[in-house]
Design a protein that fits this description.
alpha+beta; 2 domains; five-stranded antiparallel sheet; two-stranded parallel ribbon; 7 strands; elongated; disordered C terminus
Length: 185
C-alpha cells in the first residue's frame, strides 16, 4: 500500500481497516445502504427492502480488484440471508454500476449517498439491515507527525457532522438547459 511505502500521507479507504502495524484508521463516515433499481422495476414503489427480497434479482457489482470492501460486505450479507447473488454485470466503478441500473441491466446495493446519481431514472430503496453500512475511513501512518497531516485530519474529522447533515438534506441537482449555441471556435 502506498501509505506503508510513504508515497502518500493519507488515504480514504473502505473496510477492512488495518488494525495493527504502522497504519491507523479513523472512521470518517458510516451510512446505510440502499438498493438502486430502475424506476420501472417492481421494487421501485417499495418503502424498504430486505436482502432476501433480492434473491432472484440480477446484481451489478464493482469487483473486489476495483472496489475492496463494500462489494465483499454485500456479497457476504447475501450469503448470510440465504442466497448467492446472481451477478449479471461487473462494473469498473460505482458510477458505471449506477448507469447499468439506469439501463435496466440489474440492481445494485450501494451507499445511500448515491441517491443523488441518476435521480430521474433510478429509485433508491433503503435496505432494512441497519448493521450493513457503507463505511469510509481516513488512514495514515502512526509515525507521521507532519503538521500538514495533523491539520488535514483535524479539519476532515471536524467536518464529519456537516457531511452527515448535508447528505441527509441535499436535494437532487438540477440539470442545466442546453442553449443550442455552439462554443466559439
Amino acid at each position: 500500500m502506498a501509505l506503508e511505502r510513504e508515497q502518500l500521507d493519507v488515504a480514504f479507504i473502505r473496510p477492512p481497516f488495518p488494525e495493527e502495524g504502522p497504519l491507523r484508521t479513523e472512521l470518517f463516515s458510516s451510512e446505510p445502504l440502499a438498493v438502486a433499481v430502475p424506476r420501472t422495476h417492481r421494487f421501485a414503489s417499495r418503502k424498504i427492502l430486505r436482502l432476501s427480497d433480492l434473491a432472484q434479482e440480477p446484481f451489478i457489482i464493482v469487483p473486489r480488484h476495483y472496489s475492496f470492501g463494500l462489494s465483499d460486505s454485500v456479497l457476504a450479507a447475501c450469503r448470510e440471508a440465504g442466497f448467492t447473488p446472481r451477478i449479471s454485470q461487473r462494473a469498473p466503478q460505482l458510477s458505471s454500476a449506477i448507469n447499468f441500473v439506469a439501463a435496466g441491466m440489474g440492481i445494485t446495493v450501494t451507499s445511500s449517498c448515491m441517491r443523488f446519481q441518476q435521480p430521474a431514472s433510478i429509485r433508491y430503496v433503503p435496505l432494512a439491515q441497519p448493521d450493513l453500512r457503507a463505511e469510509l475511513g481516513i488512514t495514515y501512518r502512526r509515525d507521521n507527525h507532519a503538521p500538514t497531516l495533523r491539520h488535514f485530519l483535524a479539519a476532515a474529522l471536524a467536518a464529519r457532522p456537516l457531511l452527515r447533515a448535508s447528505a441527509a438534506t441535499r436535494p437532487p441537482a438540477k440539470r442545466r438547459r442546453q442553449s443550442g449555441r455552439r462554443p466559439p471556435s
